[in-house]
């Protein structure tokens, strides 16, 4: 088998670092954060001032919900 070149190994290592850094041991937190940001961005992109206010109010509630769900999962022993 042919060894990969240095640039290919560097890019692969960089990608593995970011996956480990962002996802880590709790992928549900990463997915929840991405979904919350996506929903808030979609709501805010509608253009009205009221939608922006709703998006700003939604983000802390979404973070609280995702963290609570992760905590409950860990307490029940479902994280490992």
Outline of the structure:
This protein is mostly helical and 80 residues long. The chain has three helices and no strands.
Number of E-state strands:
0
Mean pLDDT: 88
General form: flat
Helix content range of the residues, please?
Answer: over 70%
Radius of gyration based on Cα positions: 18 Å
- Continuous helix count: 3
Task: Give me the secondary-structure category.
Answer: mainly alpha
| Uncertain runs | none
Can you summarize the main beta sheet? none
User: Which sequence of SSEs, written as H and E, runs from N to C?
Assistant: HHH
Estimated share of beta-strand residues: under 5%
Distance between the termini: 35 Å
How many domain modules? 1
Structure explained in plain terms:
The chain is mainly alpha-helical and 80 residues long. The protein has one domain (24-80). It is 78% helix and 0% strand. The chain contains 3 helices and no strands. It has helices at 6-22, 27-44, 49-75. It is flat, with a radius of gyration of 18 Å. The model has no long low-confidence stretch (mean pLDDT 88).
Write the layout of secondary structure elements.
Layout: H1 6-22, H2 27-44, H3 49-75
Helix pairs in contact: 2-3
Descriptive key words:
80 residues
């Amino acid at each position: 088998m042919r060894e990969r070149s240095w640039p290919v190994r560097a890019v692969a290592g960089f990608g593995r670092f970011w996956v480990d850094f962002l996802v880590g041991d709790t992928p549900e937190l990463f997915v929840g954060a991405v979904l919350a940001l996506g929903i808030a961005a979609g709501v805010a992109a509608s253009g009205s001032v009221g939608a922006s206010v709703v998006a700003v109010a939604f983000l802390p509630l979404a973070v609280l919900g995702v963290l609570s769900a992760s905590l409950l999962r860990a307490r029940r022993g479902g994280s490992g």
